[in-house]
Structures
1.
Amino acid sequence: MTRLTLALRQRPSQRLDLSPLVPHLLAGKSAREIERIELQTTRRRVAVGEVFRLRMGDAEQICIEGSCERLDYVGREMTGGELLVDGDVGIQAGRLLSGGRLAIRGNAGPWAASGMKSGLLQILGAAGDRLGGPLPGEMSGMRGGIVVVRGDAGERAGDRMRRGTIIIEGHGGPYPGSRMIAGTLIVLRSAGALPGFLLKRGTIVLGGGCDALSPTFVDCGVHQLLANRYMAAMIEPYSRPAAKLMRRPLRRLAGDMAVLGKGEIFVENTTEA
Amino acid sequence: MPALTIKGVQIDDTFAEAFGMRATALIITADTARWARQAAVTMTGMATSVIGCGCEAGIDRELNSRQTPDGRPGIRVLLFAVSTAELQKQVQTRVGQCVLTSPGSACYSGLEGEESLRLGDGLRYFGDGWQISKRVGPKHFWRIPVMDGEFVCEASAGLTKKAVGGGNLIIIGRTAQTTRAAAEAAAAAIAKVPDVIAPFPGGIVRSGSKVGSKYKGVPASTNDAYCPTLRGVVKTALEADAAAVLEIVIDGLTSDAVASAMRAGIAALVKLGPKRGAMRISAGNYGGKLGPHHYHLRRLLP
């Protein structure tokens, strides 16, 4: 299968909306039709052919070469196939993703994986603030799928997350897993202050501790839970270090008792988080 | 009925008549193989016949730690029932009473079926509000807090409607000892066939039944034609020198699995020979009008 490639000619003069460039929307389209797709976010019209050099192939696998942070909404509402991005992306990459794989070989802006429903989002660099989080006015953030960030993540990763798994292999910003409703958030290195702020349900795993833990989390002791081992087996294909962390004995802190209190934070086996 | 003889063992030209069933497979794991087996043995107890037990269940095979979802030793069990509703009830009751209660146990679906049964989705209420739902990719499981930690249970289990129940072999011998030895050999061979169980004790049943009874309301009664002590007083199916009869009933997830199991059983009986084992092999049927699956012995010869 030859993949469809879009090579950025030069850094665009305005931010672009790349949401039309997903496999299910490009399937069956000719090169001419694809080049005419409009991507502008201002009043000045910009078509695909003006900013990208198109090499036709099977739209089931799309590659964006030379990407930069001015490309927003990459992979938005994608339902299947593969979208590979070589470079950075702007805001809301993988927003409402419901299937397939979106792989970003660079950094992602804020609200990556926002409202994601299913599928896989891989970010090889860092992720911006509110990874998987809801947009203003929305009741829940990520609702399913798996997000893997090889670098660091900004503040409030997993905000209002309802289902799914987020793995951050680097550092986490402040308030990771804030207002989480359910799901699993794993931060391998240290996280910022107040993880699980107003956590209702869900699991946060902190491999490197955090700057400050809310006193509204209560110690439930050190456990090597089968559920974590089972989770480890399931996430191993996506992140071996995360799987390794989940297999260790971890201290369980239940909370946030300021709200429902049926969530949990796992930290390394020390008396202090 | 005409018969053929292989290595001195007479094989009747007849067939086993079997029925379509609903079935599921579960994987039970524990910290040790001993406790995985204990949970499996307990949950498949008193599950020999749908007539009196609601379901037929048994151990399919042992699984090593590389073959189970959580990397611990495990056992795959199969459960068969006549309806989806009854199977659901049996799964819920047996896992709830026998697996949930067993130290260190966990329970997962062991079958990708066309439909699904509630597994952890029903048992989660034992958690009294402290149960935790987890979903990773297509997998959904429940964590239910219990006194030794947590009971991990997959949310649902696969269901197949292509299962077959009632494959059988009737083993006739000259003494009780040789008949039992023959049945043991056949049961051991059948136990190695995947996707089947022989639900009776040790895989063997000595009280084969016929449909109906002289007594009102009794659905099944002793198969008098195969009772050696009644040879002179009923229309018998036994020759003069037959001293004992044992039966092996086989349930399988597919018709092919049942046929493979019967073939393995016949091969073991023939290998043992008539002196140390069975003098004759037959099969039970109802004339071919009740069950859609017919397993002719002559097509299953070794």
2.
Amino acid sequence: MSGRDVGERAVRRRLVIGSTVFATIAIGAALLAGRMLIASQLESAAVSLARTDLGAFTVEYDERRAHLEQPAPGVLVGALEGDRWLVSSLPDEVQDALPGRDPDTVSVVSGGGGTWVVVGQQLPGESVSGEVVTAWAARDLESSHEALESIDRLFVLGGALLVALFAVASWFVVRLSFRPVEAARQRERRFVSEAAHELRTPLAGLRAQLAVVRRSLAEPAAAAQELDRADASAERMSELATNLLELARLEQGTAPAAAPLSELRDAFGGAVDDVRISPVARGVAIEQESPAELRDASARVDAVSFARLVRNLLANAAAAAGPGSTVRASLTVDDGALVLVVVDDGPGMPADFLPRALEPFTRGPGAHGPGSGLGLALVDSIARAAGGSVVLEDGHPGLRVEVRMPVG
Amino acid sequence: MAGPVRMLLVEDDEAIAAAVRDGLRDDGYDVDVETTGLDALIALGRADYSVAAVDVMLPGMDGFELCRRIRESGHRLPVLMLTARDAVEDRVRGLDVGADDYLTKPFAFPELAARLRALTRRHEVLGRTDLVAGDLVLRLDAGRVEAAGAPVSLSPREFQLLRLLASRGGDVVSRDDALDEVWGTRHIEQQIVDQYIAYLRRKLRDAGSATAIETVRGQGYRLVAP
């Protein structure tokens, strides 16, 4: 397991923990706000009930001022003159706390075994002794507190459950969204190791060839032959590096440039000329055919990439067919597509290899000469970036490759 | 080739500079190497060059900037840009600042020679339009050929070889001449000329042309009009 994997796992863990902490704070704040709202609702309900009691009591007081009866015990009301209770069903704790308080503000009294909300009102007129009389009504908040407590329990449990659910969900989401990253990472790793392996082969060859040259300096003919081989190794490395760069550029997915057909035809001709003088085409005849007249249109590929595509196909065909063979390349425009066909008269490709031939670093059985297995992969990438396609088929004999790119 | 072609190479990699200088000397070039853009501008003021090859990745002033300044100072000499990157933007940018052609590193030596040859040739050809030989008409400005009235599709080197044959008016063109004129180098095996003659013959025959390319044993090839 490499260091980068550990790094990725740490990133995933941080994402899950971070989002869970954030979710915990958000859920906690929401529940707290909800609880405060409910608490104030419960209290205002108690206050308005107390006010109803107080209203009924003051009416009764007005009517029967002199003959007040002790209120029923369920209703907590009382009349206070100075610091003396005329009548009262209020609990002792409330009775003790109220004298001297402003009747117009809502009071909360707690003590003994309970909490009460108390409202008051000054009664009109004066008492027999000439003092101010205030009426008071209270409501027990015990039931509200019980309701609040059960809501608290519900909220704490529910909140914890929500946070846990969120943590699990975010773990899944993070894992899912990292899956393509991980796949790309694996592809990239395989690509790099295969590229390095492909580079090592011609490098090893090159070093051996240079050593032979050093020993055979006395025989110029042998040295020259060995230098030719060294040159071929260097060419193979150059092609590999160029193909890798081009593939990397295509992977970036920058919008493909468009080139007019005439420019692509010139790129085709130039690529044919380049391959004809390259070592891989020694002894191979490369025939080319392209339209002399072209309509004024363009394809979604730039001339450099198109030339690279042509070079790769021709070099591939020449290497596969070998000296004495003929490779035919033709460029045509049919309705709506630029069509490049490359046919060789070599041994062709086994049918079971055809489907894999476009993948990077695959080489057909018995492949020889320079070639990294990147050439056709790059052809495929360039064609697809241009919205086109590549078809390989048995050419009886040899291989027939057809590249089509839409023309607009 | 008549007299050495003076060329300015601006390249800071000593190994590449030495290889290119020595290789091109055999092909009739007199190559001066400069390693920075500033030195290159000074050299251009001192001597009269026929062509310049400029590396894009130079220390200090880069190749694009150098090329722009060369054009600003009014020089018309053809400039070939050399770069390790073949991103399209680079290529477009190179042509925007006034470069005439573009070659990506690593390049094969014959490719460089052929590009330089085409660039020096392009300037010589300016002003001429058509070349007629038998039933062949070569449109020099467009690089197109008509045989017996119908267009023939030739690759750039095929066209240049046919032009060379046509311009000699039936005189023999040796393989060495062809290598010099078309590919600009003798670092290619001579068989490539024979191969290109075969391509041309096939093209002319398929086009129904009565003009033929004749082999002169031990000497080379010549164009025979009916």
